[in-house]
Amino acid sequence: MYETEQRVRSARETTTTAGATAAAGVPAAPRAGERYERYAGGSPELERRIFEELARDLMLVQLKIRKRSGARSVDRAFHAKGLLGVENAALRFRADLPADLRVGFARPGAEYPVIARFSNASGLRQADAAPDLRGVALRIQVGQEETHDLLMTNHPVSHAANAREFVAFAQAMAGADTALRKGLGLYVKLPRKVGRRAAARMRRNIKAGTGRTVRSLALETYWSRGAMLWGGAGPVRFHLRRVPDAPQGPSPALNDPDYLGHEMAARLAQGDVVFELCVQRYRDAERTPVENGATAWKDSPSVPVATLTIPRQDVGTAEGRAAALRVDGLAFDPWNTTDDFRPLGNVNRARKAAYEAGSAYRRGQRFVTPVPRRNAVASRILGRGFRAVNRAVPWHRMPARLGLLNLITLREGLQRHDLIDTEVREAPPEPRQMPPAIDEEMLVRRSFDGSYNDLSEPMMGSLGTAFGRNMPPVYRPSLFDVPNPVTVSRQLLRRLNFLPARTLNLLAASWVQFQVHDWVNHRRYPVGTRNVEVPLPHGMTWSNLPGGTPEGVMRFAENHGVRAAEGEPPILFANTASHWWDGSEVYGGDESVAMSLREPGGAAELRLEDGHLPLGPDGVPLTGFRENWWLGVSLMHTLFAREHNTVCEALRTAYPRMQEEQIYHTARLVVSALIAKIHTLEWTPAILATDTIAAGMRANWSGPPRDWATRLGLWLADAHALTGIPGTAPDHHGVPYSLTEEFVAVYRMHPLIPDDYEFADHRTGRSLGSLGLEGILGTAAEDVLRRTGLSSALYSFGIAHPGAIALHNYPRTLQRLEREGEIIDLSVVDLVRDRRRGVPRYNDFRSGLRKPRVRRFEEISADPDTAARLKDVYRSVDEVDTMVGLFAETPPEGFGFSDTAFRVFLLMATRRLQSDRFLTVDFRPEIYTPLGMDWIARNGMNDVLLRHCPDLAAFLPREASAFAPWRPALPEEPPPGVLGLA
Fold it and tell me: Where is this region: Disordered (predicted)?
């Protein structure tokens, strides 16, 4: 495990450094061979995007082949049928190797072990006598840290000139297992995709390559068809040809469907099989084109450089069969090489994306989710219809069934238009000296830092990756202080009188911060090293440090940004938490923290002292996320640390042979999934209290109601909604998974926090006293919890209301907050962060979410007084800050926040589940254990509360979630007075 984490960190550091260099506008050193290449789309980045789409198309080809063939698993899109696989071949370079070809591992007399796989080219496992090409893949093993994969086919040219034609042919011929289907593919589908002229040329090449009988794999010549660099010698094409004295052998038995493999086995049983590896040198772009794979290099003579020997052996033994099975499972890729031997040309560059996607799909490490045609058609029709209807009747005023269908249509539109990839990607592709290896443990457990959730892109969503975007950023330095954020805070945000949210309790406020600490955290510079300065309104001063001198500016630590390209704004930021829903706020985001939180001696349980979290040297409990600590998050951390330990004990009892490390990781999976379920099915319907939302969240988790009308609508609009997300494959909707800056902006819900708190004994209802918010912040929180007791603290939060998410309801305590050695106004910080991170202002934010722009302040809020106050602060509706607009907007009935904020929630709530391997394809008993799956299915927030505080049973709501107000205990006599809390 430790070695895996070290590899991940090393890979991240390398990627970050390279990405930062490229992003910073520093001219990269010219890549070897680059002068011979021309990029599709005109640039490496545009070409990369094209190739990503082509890779997805090839995955769909694999899926179609699987369905047509009736196979139980996905196979290779090409070269599916292996004919021979050996691990003991050898490549020896010639002693007279020409001087200009002596590059890297290519040294006179050098010999290397080779893995070799011979195959038919088709994606179908058909009889060897069927018309087809044959291929060979070699993996030259130079050392523990260096390999070179060479791929060849037994025809000098490709049927496709470029990657687009290659994929078009694959799509046209996918699953073509009969003469009729092959004819339709070649003469109908292919011309539609590439044009008649290109289709005719491709058919000629295919006929030339497949229109003859192959007698023996040992007698064929295999051509690279694409170019590769050979160090300073420049581009070459290579081929593998039989040696002149190779024996012919008997005529093949064509009625044997596997005659080619049998013939090779018989040949090897009698002696070695030997080939010559030859290269053809580049001459010029006309005679030896690099970008066109359909043109032969006729004017370039073959130069023998090495000999490949497959030694005499019996491949039919158990040992030989086992070796063949291992070879068949390998993913050969021409980009497994060094920079001196990098592949060249359009088709080869496309192979990097295509082979990685195809092999990951075949291994169950990457997934593709085809959209049924009916869904695509219905989505377009419903989208137009609902857009027209919503001008008069918004979704939340519709009957529940129709509203649910409207929401699904809205979400699909957001998935198409409001996911922006911000990661620095590899363009053009780079070689790698070794094929990537995945630690087997990562298949069945969450990593500590979020890596290896997506096995095909191990760093996706991990700690340190960038926040994504739901809309293009709007970065306007000239408006950073317009209007003055301090003025905005004082005039529109400051709490005048506490406005309660009467449908919720304070546990709902605690819960959302508990979740946000799992999801998002921007790293700040140390206090005093790099600051943001906000000018204060005339006559106002502010002390930025405890005991500091009043100043005319408000100052606070700036966020660390990812370096931008020259001339680009610094609006890309890394998340110092993992983006996944993985319970990292409880377990920690790296191995050292996670291990320090466990009981000593390798036990699976988390450390607790008399049921409470142990205190660190600073007085704040030791847990996964310790910043911004207050009593509300302490309650949640304590509950779920206890829940983890209870799950551990249950697993240990049910599976006595399970090792402690496995118990720990399984319990973590179970608790994290239970948290996700509670948020989806309980917290969300509590704060968005409508029947439509409740049905939508149930559909997300476990599928829709059973009534035929709802199911018919979902069958038409979104077939995946019929099963619930845990029954589907992961789907990133075309953009690598990350949480977004807009998601962060929406989840700023500080008005939920009251400024004062009343505590009561849950057994009697008697008051234990009251405290201000400052009395339960930071180190003070644990003293209050221990003196009050967990049950009474939970009860006190359960019967109290949070604040409404509205203007004039921002906690005053948070407007003068001491944090990490600085004094900040958190409301000002929130406003400034959005402006500087390029989060669009409210009107642009609405527009980015496909909502109509507002033209007047009165359209933001139906309250005349609110509209008048907005006019006093802002010159125009286009200047209204996003947070202010979201707080001012009149929410739908039953909603705890605005419909505009809900649009981001609608998109990202589904995405948090749907992208996560452990909440989709690996949400299964084999990973979680049957006990774990049952635990998640049977339990909710009420169960967690009662398991650890059974004496709260009488107070929990009967017909609502634990986040609704609890029944208060009625004191039998007047309170005896304060019990030491005030």
Answer: 1-28
Q: What is the per-residue pLDDT across 273-319, written as a single tens digit (0 to 9) for each?
A: 999 999 999 999 999 999 998 899 988 999 999 999 999 999 999 99
Nearest CA among 486, 348, 502 for reference residue 429: 348
Is 981's pLDDT higher than 70? no
What sign for the dihedral angle of Cα 790, 791, 797, 800?
negative
Beta strand ranges found along 902-958 (DSSP E):
none
**Is the model's pLDDT at 982 over the cut of 60?**
no
Is the peptide bond prior to 428 cis by the omega test (within 30 degrees of 0)?
yes
DSSP state, residue 630: B
CA dihedral 214, 219, 224, 225 (to 10 degrees): -50
121 assigned to some structural domain: yes
Distances from the Cα of 658 to the Cαs of 344, 653, 867, 930, in angstroms?
50, 9, 62, 13
Kindly report the pTM of this predicted structure: 0.89
For the chain, count helices (H), then strands (E).
Answer: 31, 15
Domain that holds residue 322: 79-154+214-332
Report the domain count for the chain.
1
Q: What is the pLDDT of residues 49-78, one digit of tens each?
A: 888 888 888 888 878 877 777 777 777 777
Q: At what angle are helices 400-417 and 899-914 packed, to 10 degrees?
A: 70
Report how far residue 946's alpha carbon sits from residue 226's, in angstroms, rounded to the nearest whole number.
66
| Residue 396 annotated to the active site | no
Q: b vs e for 339-368, b when ≥16 Cβ sit within 10 Å of the residue's Cβ? A: ebbbbbbbbbbbbbbbbbbbbbbbebbbbb
User: Distance between CA 207 and CA 821 in Å, rounded?
Assistant: 76
CATH of the domain at 275: 2.40.180.10
Instruction: Please report the sign of the dihedral spanned by the C-alpha atoms of residue 54, residue 57, residue 61, residue 62.
Output: positive
Asked if residue 295 belongs to a domain, the reply is: yes
96 occurs within a structural domain: yes
Asked if the structure places residue 321 within a domain, the reply is: yes
- Catalytic residue among 155, 239, 396, 517, which? 517
